[in-house]
Every structure is written in C-alpha cells, then in structure tokens.
Description:
Strand order of the largest sheet: 1-3-2
Structural class: alpha+beta
Strand content: 5-15%
Oligomer: single chain
Amino acid sequence: MSQNPTLFHHLLHSSDLVEERLRLKLAPLGVHPRQARILSALHRIGESSQVRLAREFDVSKASMSTMTARLVSAGYISRMADPNDHRGSILRLSEKGQDLLSDIDDAWVAVDDIIRDALGQRKMFELETLLSELCDYLGG
C-alpha cells in the first residue's frame, strides 16, 4: 500500500512558490534566481572554473555554460582562459556584477520576510535548521 507523499509534495510546491516570489523580486534587476546564486557564489569563492561551478550547482557543464554566457553578455561576469586547462575558462565577478550584489541580497531578504510573515520567527528558525540538515544530508 503506497502512502500519499504529502511531505514531498508540500516541500516541492512551497519551494516552487518561494522561487517564484524570488523571481519577481529579481526581475527588475534582469537576473533569474540561479543566475543570482552564481553571482553570489563567485563573490564568495572568488574566481572559479565553469566546471567547478557546474559541480557546485549540480548542473551539467552545458547548462552552466549557457547560464554564464548570459551573465558574461550582461557584463556581470568576465571570462578568461584557464591557464591550467586550455579547453576551460575562469569566471570572475565584474564590477557591474559586484554592484548588483546588494540588490540581490535585498531580494533574498524580502523573500525571507515573506517566509517570516507566513510562519513567524520561531518556526522560520526551525525550518531553516531542518532544511540545512536536509541539504547537508543530501550533499548540498
């Protein structure tokens, strides 16, 4: 007898809804949620290869190439040849990308505020703790 996967459904559906709220907050900046995460990652780790970013975000090299190409075109990151791998490239946050980070952080805070309004401070903290444990367990 199969059980109704309500926990999974609620987690996945709420994740989609939260991402849509974030998408709306980021739209005026001209970036999508995953692009914002890439910019933030480059800020945090410094320059990085596309291969490393693809691994960190658990996406194919082709997907990461597409996402970063758009960020290069928009002037948010720069790409240079990888001196250790003639087929690869190194990505670096540009000044324009640096300037966008505070607006991205503001969008994330606004989404956190939505979650806090829905759950209250205590439940939000509990949710953050549980989701962090789940991410760690799943290798995130």
